[in-house]
Amino acid sequence: MAVINKSVLMARKYISSCVSDGDRVIDATCGNGHDTLFLAKIVGEKGKVFSFDIQPEALVNTRRLLEANNLADRVHLIQSGHERMDSHVHEKVAAVMFNLGYLPGGNHKIITRPDTTVEALAKSLQLLCAGGVVTVVVYSGHEGGREEKNTLLNYCRNLNQEYFTVLYYEIINQINEPPSLLVIERLL
């Protein structure tokens, strides 16, 4: 079993605190399906997960993981960029998870990009219900990663504090630029 990094663990704690049985949630970057599986477990039988990725390989990996855990019926897999989530999700959601960078085990040249990630984040905040949470695990150690991190931080600094609270969690005593975490809570 793979070791889960601290930023992902913290993201899951925040998500768990705001998601209830029957909720609708989004995995904006399904990757190999681990966050989608986590979300499928916590929304329960009446809940729904909308899971996005642009790579067919990611959707295949995610479907296999969900089927192995008998949870595929709770998830709608969508081959599309996360910046188009509002074209596929037409209801309020309790949580949105992003896990940026590249597909582990996949092509490292295919990465999330600052412009589409900020667009997706803006759309996720529009879909988020009051009290809901968006988590963004940010990997900055790859080419383009630092630019994406800085763009996201600048965007989040400008969110209206009457509507959103933004937390930034960063590990400062480890080598190789460990992932950081943005947590955005919608207040109103």
Please render the helix and strand layout as text.
Elements (H helix, E strand, L loop, with lengths): L5 H13 L5 E4 L6 H10 L4 E6 L2 H13 L6 E5 L13 E7 L14 H14 E11 L6 H13 L6 E6 L10 E7 L2
Describe the structure.
With 188 residues, this protein is an alpha/beta fold. It has one domain (6-186): Vaccinia Virus protein VP39 (Rossmann fold). Helices cover 34% and strands 24% of the residues. The chain is built from five helices and seven strands; from the N terminus they run αβαβαββαβαββ. Strands 3-2-1-4-5-7-6 form a seven-stranded mixed β-sheet, with helices on both faces. Helix 4 runs parallel beside helix 5. The radius of gyration is 15 Å and the shape is globular. The N and C termini lie far apart (39 Å). The mean pLDDT is 96.
Put the structure in a nutshell:
With 188 residues, the chain is α/β, with parallel strands linked by helices. The protein has helices spanning 6-18, 34-43, 56-68, 114-127, 145-157; strands spanning 24-27, 48-53, 75-79, 93-99, 128-138, 164-169, 180-186.
- Largest beta sheet, briefly? 7 strands, mixed
Shape: globular
Range of helix content? 25-40%
Estimate nothing, just give the exact number of structural domains. 1
Radius of gyration: 15 Å
Percent strand? 15-25%
Under CATH, the homologous superfamily reads Vaccinia Virus protein VP39
Q: Do you know the CATH topology?
A: Rossmann fold
Number of helical stretches of at least 4 residues: 5
Number of strands: 7
Q: Could you say what the CATH architecture is?
A: 3-Layer(aba) Sandwich
Structural class: alpha/beta
